[in-house]
Amino acid sequence: MPRTLQPPRNAAPTTDPPRSAIRDPRSRRRCPGCSHRGTFYVLNQKNAIVSGDIGCYTLGALPPLDAMDSCLNMGASISMAHGMEKVMPEDERNRIVAVIGDSTFYHSGITGLIDVVYNGGASTVVVLDNHTTAMTGHQEHPGTGHTLMGEPAQVVDVEMLARSVGVKDVRRIDPYDLGETWRTIDDAMRRDEPSLLIADAACVLRERISFGESIAIDAEKCTNCYACTRVGCPAIEQVEDHLEVNSILCIDCTHCQQVCSDCNAGIDVPQVLELVDQGRYREAFDVLVRANPFPSVAGRVCPHPCDHDVNALGWPQRRLRAERHPDLVPAFPDPHHDGAISVREMEKFLGDWAIENVDGAEYRPDAELDDRVAVVGSGPAGLSAAWHLRRKGYQVTIFEAQDEPGGMLRYGIPEFRLPRWALDAEIQRLRDIGVDIRCGMRLGADVAFGHLMEEYDAVVLGTGAWQGRNAGIDGAEGTHQVLNGVEFLRAFNAGKAPELGRRVGVIGGGNTAIDCARVARRLGADVALIYRRTEAEMPAIRDEVDEARAEEVAFRFQELPTRVLRHDDGRFRGLELITMRQGEPDDSGRRRPVPVPGSEHEEELDAVILATGEQPDLGYLEGSDVRRNGRVDVRFTGATSRPGVFAAGDAAFGHGTVTQAVGEGARVADAVGTWLQQRRRP
After folding, report:
1. What's the CA gap between 426 and 403, in Å, rounded?
2. Which residue, among 506, 525, 526, 524, has the nearest Cα to 516 in the 3D structure?
3. Of 24, 234, 378, 502, which alpha carbon lies 20 to 30 A from 661's?
4. 374 - beta bridge partners?
């Protein structure tokens, strides 16, 4: 039994409680597996202007589907849409869609459809045909083949009725196939004639339908982008800081599987693919920047988990994408898998195309709000939060400590991986929509945290992680030949790279380590990258590892530096290393590296670059009531212990990739918007 039918846990003690004490026990969402969810999800994807009618499906008007803009009852949705079509601006007319239930269509909607045809309208009408009058108790109607008394009756077919009044474009859609539903609705909305689409699927509650076993989330693949929650299914639950599927509620309808793309930033990959396949690049870019305002950047530095064979919810996305969009396979080939589409290459293409063809000022908000938000840090998390907050209409100011914006994008990633023209162009888009970026403003030195709290309605901390971790190498501290990886990259990007010598060891297995190794090669050194685990356990982007190999970086696995070696006169001469083997799994699930006794050996080196991880510098929060635990202590939404203060990116979550920081910035922007709206309520 769905939880929506469970009684409230806190029953009121009086027979006539005040209205504020009454708790509605039902979750205001469609039933698990409801077919209407697919239709409403696609209408939301299409940014349709939806004229709704009354029925159980009216719950689609609520978040997260948000799929209705007006709601009138007794068949008025079709007439309302036709009226809107007559008075709304031309660029909005093809976005208008009328939605109506099957039983309502029979007794009241057909007259509105006649009106559309008679008066030369071009409305798109979607009939939600779930084979019953669900809202009032699952009664029969003229399309079910039975009377209200259960006796056999002539079936009055919706398709036949529509054609009989002059509608030529009448089609049935399977609302469980989101891709085909998108294509059909998209085509209908672009026509200059009336279209009637029948979303044909039985009511799962009445028929007690289950399509298969419960879906489960693969925690190893899940990026916490929350895309699956956009379908509004009550079977998907947040448990502490992650999502789970309630196996009792899930009926394996596959809606959530189809919207999951394993994208760190939460991009609607299926819709982007559809639009690019049709050559509709501007629309595809519009979809992209709803989630990620930096596709040119991300297309160059993202680890692209979206290219997984099977996504985190078990959907064979790689194969199905290639089957649905065969023309995109040669256009954006995946270098690692024959016959597959590289989503990252497509994203980079769209980002570069938009830099040349799209005016960023077109994304200015439709309405201005008075609330002011300060964003501290202009790395990927801060820039993303600023973009999404500004798009909502808030007045946003970014405070950046460095001379130019970009954070780690500018100072931590070498230009051969991320061209500065692409970064500068996508940051300029923020300025185009009205974000105020103030550089040379370090929090705690040039501007006080308390000042921001006084002057702004909300503060977002996106200061990143710039401090290198102690690698635990005896004698390394204070040795000039032992360099911090982030500081080394920052110096190189500023044109001030230090002298390294001929033999360089890079310690670490992440993206920073790979970048340091490739930079050192460009400076003329022979480079060995030394990592304590196996190659399969390296967290670095696989493409970047391949590039490093092609550039003749040597890889040494399962070795750990233990101490600095010196000549008799104290000069640096290299490292002592010890061989490691795989032990029992640690908290991360990977097998713990264990030293092999007696395997110590020496490595002659001229310099060592430590890239074993970074941590944030939170000194600017000293004396504040914002809790810290090595990072800013936050909830999943990015909210801190102090109301009005939020944090995103590596300063809070520490996931360490650009696109995850972008996704976190967007999520925090939503949380800030919700908090500011709630604060305004009386």
Report:
1. 17
2. 506
3. 234
4. 397, 459
Please check the confidence at residue 619 and state whether its pLDDT lies above 80: yes
d(CA 306, CA 29): 28
Q: CA-to-CA distance for 415 and 423, rounded, in angstroms?
A: 10
Report how far residue 87's alpha carbon sits from residue 96's, in angstroms, rounded to the nearest whole number. Answer: 12
pLDDT for 682: 64
Which candidate, 297, 296, 233, 226, places its Cα nearest to that of 267?
226
- Separation in Å, CA 362 to CA 287, 292, 296, 365, 432: 14, 16, 18, 9, 8
Contacts of 431 (CB under 8 A, 6+ apart): 360, 437
Is residue 96 within 8 A of residue 85, CB to CB? The reply is: yes
pLDDT at position 28, please? 58
Residues written for the chain: 682
What are 17's two structure tokens? 């409680």
- Both tokens of residue 231? 């379908």
Pull the structure tokens for residue 592.
Answer: 């713990």
Reading the block at residue 538, the tokens are 């390296």
* Helical spans, DSSP H, in 278-365: 281-291, 295-301, 317-324, 328-331, 343-357
pLDDT bucket at 587, cuts 50 / 70 / 90? confident
Q: Would you say residue 679 has pLDDT above 90?
A: no
Q: How many CB atoms lie within 10 A of CB 200?
A: 19
Q: How confident is the model at residue 29 (pLDDT cuts 50, 70, 90)?
A: low
Between the alpha carbon of residue 100 and those of residues 39, 94, 118, 399, the distances in Å are 12, 18, 20, 49
Query: How far is Cα 93 from Cα 319, in angstroms, rounded to an integer?
Result: 36
pLDDT of residue 16: 39
Amino acid, single-letter form, for residue 443: L
pLDDT for 26 equals 41
Helix residue ranges per DSSP H, 190-246: 204-207
pLDDT at 368 over 70: yes
Q: What is the DSSP string of 564-613?
A: EEE-TTS-EEEEEEEEEEEEEE-TTSSEEEEE-TT--EEEE-SEEEE-S-
Residue tagged 């002298």 (tokens): 499
| Cross-strand pairs, 38 | none
Is 659 in contact with 305 (CB distance < 8 Å)?
A: no
